[in-house]
Amino acid sequence: MNDVKLGIDKIVDVAERIRRLEVQGATNIALTAVKALNEYVQESVFKDRASKLSEVSEARSVLSTSRETEPYMRNAIKYFEWKLRNANWETREGLREVSKKILDELILNFEKSHTAIISFGSKRILDGDCILTHCHSSTVNDMLKLAKRNGSSFSVIVTETRPLYQGRITARELIEAGIETTLIVDSAARSFIKSVDLVIVGADAITSEGNVINKIGTSMIALIAHEARIPFYTISSLLKFDPQTVYGEFESIEERNSFEVWADPPEGLCIANPAFDITKRDYIHGIICEEGVISPHSILEAVYRRYPWVFTTVDN
Amino acid sequence: MNDVKLGIDKIVDVAERIRRLEVQGATNIALTAVKALNEYVQESVFKDRASKLSEVSEARSVLSTSRETEPYMRNAIKYFEWKLRNANWETREGLREVSKKILDELILNFEKSHTAIISFGSKRILDGDCILTHCHSSTVNDMLKLAKRNGSSFSVIVTETRPLYQGRITARELIEAGIETTLIVDSAARSFIKSVDLVIVGADAITSEGNVINKIGTSMIALIAHEARIPFYTISSLLKFDPQTVYGEFESIEERNSFEVWADPPEGLCIANPAFDITKRDYIHGIICEEGVISPHSILEAVYRRYPWVFTTVDN
Amino acid sequence: MNDVKLGIDKIVDVAERIRRLEVQGATNIALTAVKALNEYVQESVFKDRASKLSEVSEARSVLSTSRETEPYMRNAIKYFEWKLRNANWETREGLREVSKKILDELILNFEKSHTAIISFGSKRILDGDCILTHCHSSTVNDMLKLAKRNGSSFSVIVTETRPLYQGRITARELIEAGIETTLIVDSAARSFIKSVDLVIVGADAITSEGNVINKIGTSMIALIAHEARIPFYTISSLLKFDPQTVYGEFESIEERNSFEVWADPPEGLCIANPAFDITKRDYIHGIICEEGVISPHSILEAVYRRYPWVFTTVDN
Amino acid sequence: MNDVKLGIDKIVDVAERIRRLEVQGATNIALTAVKALNEYVQESVFKDRASKLSEVSEARSVLSTSRETEPYMRNAIKYFEWKLRNANWETREGLREVSKKILDELILNFEKSHTAIISFGSKRILDGDCILTHCHSSTVNDMLKLAKRNGSSFSVIVTETRPLYQGRITARELIEAGIETTLIVDSAARSFIKSVDLVIVGADAITSEGNVINKIGTSMIALIAHEARIPFYTISSLLKFDPQTVYGEFESIEERNSFEVWADPPEGLCIANPAFDITKRDYIHGIICEEGVISPHSILEAVYRRYPWVFTTVDN
Amino acid sequence: MNDVKLGIDKIVDVAERIRRLEVQGATNIALTAVKALNEYVQESVFKDRASKLSEVSEARSVLSTSRETEPYMRNAIKYFEWKLRNANWETREGLREVSKKILDELILNFEKSHTAIISFGSKRILDGDCILTHCHSSTVNDMLKLAKRNGSSFSVIVTETRPLYQGRITARELIEAGIETTLIVDSAARSFIKSVDLVIVGADAITSEGNVINKIGTSMIALIAHEARIPFYTISSLLKFDPQTVYGEFESIEERNSFEVWADPPEGLCIANPAFDITKRDYIHGIICEEGVISPHSILEAVYRRYPWVFTTVDN
Amino acid sequence: MNDVKLGIDKIVDVAERIRRLEVQGATNIALTAVKALNEYVQESVFKDRASKLSEVSEARSVLSTSRETEPYMRNAIKYFEWKLRNANWETREGLREVSKKILDELILNFEKSHTAIISFGSKRILDGDCILTHCHSSTVNDMLKLAKRNGSSFSVIVTETRPLYQGRITARELIEAGIETTLIVDSAARSFIKSVDLVIVGADAITSEGNVINKIGTSMIALIAHEARIPFYTISSLLKFDPQTVYGEFESIEERNSFEVWADPPEGLCIANPAFDITKRDYIHGIICEEGVISPHSILEAVYRRYPWVFTTVDN
Question: Are D129 and D198 spatial neighbours (Cβ–Cβ below 8 Å)?
Answer without folding.
Answer: yes
